[in-house]
Amino acid sequence: MEKNTFNQRLILKKKANVDISYPNETTSKIKATRVKQTTRENRENRLKKSANKSENKFANRSANRSANKSATRAAARIKVDQQSEFKKMKKTESHQCPVKEAMKFLSGAWTLEIYWYLRQGPLRFGELIRSLETVSAKVLTQRLRDLEEKKIIKRKVIVESAPPQVEYSLTELGRKFLPAIDSIAEIGKKLLKIS
By the 8 A CB rule, do 110 and 143 touch? Predict the structure, then answer.
C-alpha cells in the first residue's frame, strides 16, 4: 500500500508541480483541481497565443500582399524597360556587326555546298541533288527557296522541255560571297591534307 501511495504522490507531484507531504483526501482533491486548473489555463494560454499568431499572420499577409503587388509592378516595369533596351541593343548590334549580317546569308544546312556547286554556273535541280549526294529532295527544295527569298540565287523555269525543268544560278549578291567561300575551301583543303 505504501508503495502505491508513494508512486501516486510522485505522479501528482510531477503533474501539479507542488509538494505533497500529507496524503489525505482533501489535499489530494485540492491538488487534483489545481492540476485541472493549470491544464485548463495552459490550454487557454495556448489558444490565445495561436489566436494572436493567426491575427499577426493575417496582418502580415495583407501587408505582404500589398508590398508584393507594388514590388511585382516595379519588377514588371523594370522587365519591360530591360526588354525594350535589349530590343534596341539587338537592333543596333545587327547594324554594328557586319559578320553577323553576312552569316545570315551563309548559315543553314547545305548552304555552303549549294554555293560551291553553283559557283561553276547554273545547275538544274537533278544535277544539284546528284552533286550533294546525301541531301533529300525536300531539304534541298527548302534550302533553295530560302536562298531565293534572300536573293542569293535565282530560279529560272525552262518551259521548252517537257516536263518543265528548273535551273538555279547565283545572283550578283550571291557572287559577292564567292571570295569568302574560296577562302573557306582553301582552309578545308589544307585540313584534308593534315588528317
Answer: yes
Amino acid at 194: I
Please state, in angstroms and rounded to a whole number, the distance separating the CA atoms of residues 161 and 159: 6
The residue to which cell 553553283 is assigned: 118
Question: Does residue 174 share a domain with residue 118?
Answer: yes
pLDDT for 56-97, tens place per residue?
665 566 656 666 666 677 666 676 666 666 666 666 555 678
| b/e code 126-153 from CB counts within 10 Å (16+ = b) | eebbeebeebeeeebeebbeebeeeebb
pTM listed for this prediction: 0.49
Containing H/E element for 165?
strand 165-170
92 in the same domain as 1: yes
Q: What whole-number distance in Å separates Cα of residue 137 and Cα of residue 129?
A: 7
8 A C-beta contact, residue 122 and residue 169: yes
Q: Which residues are 166's β-sheet partners? A: 157
The DSSP bridge pattern shows strands 123-124 and 165-170 to be antiparallel
Say if residue 92 is in the same domain as residue 114.
no
Rounded Cα–Cα distance for residues 14 and 35 (Å): 10
Cβ proximity of 146 and 178 under 8 Å: no
Q: Which residues contact 160 (CB under 8 A, 6 or more apart)?
A: none
The residue type of 144 is: L
